[in-house]
Write a structure and sequence with these properties.
single chain; 92 residues; Arc Repressor Mutant, subunit A; two-stranded antiparallel ribbon
Length: 92
């Protein structure tokens, strides 16, 4: 099953085009970002990024572009569900 934290990491890497900048934004170390992306790639059975080691940037593969759409929707649904639960808790 896809890990939501890995999807969130994936989206942040996509936004920043960098594992290092994503780590800073997420408040974790770069190796954690790498592990999240590697786990997600293993789960999906496909590479999500092409890594340019010289510039330390990443470019989405075609699979990565496709998964990005789903990841955004899944994370938005999680946020919506949490909000709905909090609203119900307040009204009880």
């Amino acid at each position: 099953m896809l890990d939501l934290q890995h999807l969130e990491t994936f989206c942040v890497v996509t936004d920043t085009n960098s594992f290092t900048r994503a780590a800073a934004k997420l408040g974790c170390c770069q190796s954690t970002v790498t592990m999240h992306i590697m786990a997600l790639e293993r789960e999906l059975g496909a590479r999500l990024f092409v890594r340019d080691r010289s510039s330390k940037t990443v470019i989405l593969t075609d699979v990565g572009k496709r998964i990005l759409q789903y990841a955004g929707r899944l994370l938005a649904l999680v946020k919506e569900a949490k909000s709905a639960v909090q609203e119900c808790a307040v009204n009880e």
